[in-house]
Specification:
single chain, 246 residues
Length: 246
């Protein structure tokens, strides 16, 4: 009966993630907490996210920017491990408040840059060194929250990636970060067989949704897609601030 709830909801969440690059965790986490409890919901979502991001990579595999992904993962992966450990020592709600404010400020900043045709391109990043430098702190922050997507979307979109290239590259980088988080969960014995099974079912739904999302993206204009990204960052910022003050 649990899977009758998880699979269709995961399919919807995977479709949303396949369109905007993230949002799956925001949709799924309340249901996972209700069904499996908060202690199991986080590793279940981490397993599901690996497969959901893998689905986006397979759907857009021709568009993956391997150099950008490698530069990001070189620092984001160790940063995520550090973030998971740091999460246990900071005051409750502090990370969510800072991140929520950050996301809300990103929307006008991104619009200001786009209006002046300013983007952070590969050529401007001095052989990807700056992308690696930004990946470290963002990976660290990712280790402290459930979802990687809201943190990496601004980085890769400011980098100048859009639509299929953005979805594929962001997903490939997120796989590395989530695998690092899973390894940390494993170190704390937080991956019993039941959690792994729940995660695989969730991941299968997210992966299927990623392919549905591709068909939607192909029908969207670049301008409308940018509005979707802005709406996502606004929603993420508001949700994180609400969690922080709860």
């Amino acid at each position: 009966m649990e899977y009758l709830v998880v699979f269709p909801l995961g399919l919807f969440a995977g479709t949303v993630g396949g369109v905007v690059g993230t949002g799956s965790s925001l949709i799924l986490m309340p249901a996972l907490v209700w069904l499996f409890g908060p202690q199991q919901a986080v590793p279940v979502m981490a397993i599901g996210a690996v497969f959901g991001n893998l689905g986006r990579v397979l759907a857009w595999w021709r568009d993956v920017d391997c150099r950008a992904c490698a530069a990001y993962c070189s620092t984001a992966v160790p940063g995520a491990v550090w973030g998971v450990h740091t999460l246990l020592t900071i005051p409750a709600g502090a990370a969510e408040a800072a991140l929520g404010s950050f996301f809300l400020l990103l929307v006008p900043a991104r619009r200001w840059l786009l209006a002046r045709s300013i983007t952070i391109s590969l050529a401007h990043l001095a052989h990807l060194a700056h992308l690696a430098l930004l990946g470290g702190p963002l990976g660290f922050l990712t280790g402290m929250v459930v979802s990687t997507g809201p943190l990496t979307v601004p980085l890769f979109t400011f980098h100048g990636l859009e639509r299929g290239v953005f979805l594929a590259t962001e997903a490939a980088g997120s796989i590395g970060v989530y695998l690092a988080k899973l390894a940390t969960f494993r170190g704390f014995d937080a991956l019993p067989p039941a959690v792994i099974v729940h995660g695989l079912v969730t991941g299968a739904a997210l992966m299927a949704g990623a392919f549905i999302g591709k068909s939607v993206v192909l029908r969207l204009s670049p301008a409308f897609y940018r509005y979707l990204i802005d709406a996502l960052m606004l929603a993420s910022g508001i949700v994180l601030l609400l969690i922080a003050v709860r």
